[in-house]
Amino acid sequence: MNKKSLWKKITGSRVFKVLTGKKSTVVCLAILLLLVVTAALAPVLAPCDPYEQKLVSQLQGMSPEHWLGTDSMGRDVLSRIIYGSRVSLVVGIASTLIAGGFGMLVGLIAGMGGRIVDTVLMRIMDAMMSVPMIILALFLGTIFGKGLGNICVAIGICMIPSYARVTRGQVLSVKEMDYVTAGVLCGASKIKNTLVHIFPNCVSANLVLMTMNLGSAILSEAALSFLGMGINPPTASWGGMVNDGYKYLSRDPIIAIAPGICIMIVVLCFNMVGDSLRDALDPKLRGTLARRGKRTKRAGAARAAG
Amino acid sequence: MEERTLIQVKDLKKYFKTSKGMLHAVDGVSFSIPKGRTLGVVGESGCGKSTLGKVLLHLHESTAGQIFFDGVDITRFNERQLRDYRKRMQMIFQDPQASLDPRKNVSSLIGEPLKNYKLTQGKAEYEERVDEIMRTVGLAPAYRESYSHELDGGRRQRIGIGRALAVDPEFIVCDEPVSALDVSIQAQILNLLMDLQDSRGLTYIFITHDLSVVKHISHDIIVMYLGQCVEYADSKTLFKRPLHPYTNGLLDAVPIPSLRQRRLNTQVMRGELTSPIEPKPGCRFAARCPHATDACRGQDIPLREVEPGHWVACRLVCP
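Above: the input entities. Below: the structure tokens describing the complete assembly.
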């Protein structure tokens, strides 16, 4: 009973309506859900063992036995893609969340703190930004060592500065708004005012940045793996597969192209969902979009009737 | 009505540090407001009237001078001490759109001060209080879940007034509350403010550049020029017998909707505000004053009482 009403509350909310109002967003959400399920059920779904090497059957093209062929070690590409989704999704999402979380925190503290705090924090961020991301990730990877968790942290740290910069800029402009002053008069403490009035009005830009960074995080993992800093070699990851496969691009392009397409689809879906999420969380856009959705539906119904 | 002084300000100063020197936003203003009365503050843009309001509420720290609230000197209060006083003094902002968080709906905007000050116990009382405030300021309950951008300017300003009223204050700084609204709604909001004053005994500082508005609502009026008070009188006297040339200029600038008046000789003020950064001693208005003499420059002109309750700072009036 209670569960049902909660479900109704979620599906009836304006956020949900706007989010599911666009067909493309629904499709993207479905694809992402499918990917998560695939990653979770990899052992069940994969037709072959992704680590079993058969050197006699290397670089076979597509066949009923191996749908996407085999790689240079004779491993089934489809199975490796299915297992690889685990690493790629985890690295992409975890490192983006680490970067977003810490970046926004740093930006918030820099924006709200005094001049000294601001200068110190932002100069550190500038220093991090001035080093090319892959070099910094390599450096951090060397310190932390190999492994999935460490690679997420390393990539996450590299992406912190951009969030910090964006958030700080937003905080500086939002904190001068009248409604923040009004919050002070309403008896909100500085911390409460920051969390209730300033922070929520700074998130949307970061949300867009997050969806954009997700793809680059997956690719960074690939680059790190390629340079021997990422996931240990036998473990399948999309990025690693692209790196392995591109050497055989002319002979057997599917080895590199298939995982590449997977990366593209994930990045595309996250971008679309992120865009819609930003719209849905913005009360101004939310109202218009909810109305617009209703109107187009009504117009569609009228057209169907007439 | 009891004639208790609620707000008293003595020689209040607020300077801002700029790269070119000190900006004298408010420079030695003194006044007092009895409980239940309205003090109008008029002056053109940049004369420091909004700063004055913000300094009174401690949104800016004052540079010098004293502010007494109900007999207590609150000038050097820290945040914790101020918290209790903030409940008793509120502000209504000029731009209702900018002063309402775009991510909050009407009921949570109005309920925010109730929650922060823990003025209600339990959800039922809270909801009831929000409803009551919405009724008081004339907002239909149907707007509870709306967002501020979905409402018109008048309703937005009603939300702003509701927020200010939620803590049941005694003193409200109205910082140009109607200048962003069109004329028909201006009247509604002004009437609402005056009704509230009658029913709750509120004390207002009403900051505006619109003389017709200030005449309608104020008991006493301060005319400010470049951070200084140039004339201070009750509303009737000021409109009947304005003495300072600047006040005259302001009154002449009010358009009169009558055909017969159009050939009337009025003096429109020329020039613009001189810089408030490191002003020279002497009458600040001298640069634009048609009657200025050398006596006006070089020495500050004090505010003098020319008749009971009518104060003017001008060499011409009281040499």
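Note for the figure: Chain A touches chain B through 19 residues (CB under 8 Å).
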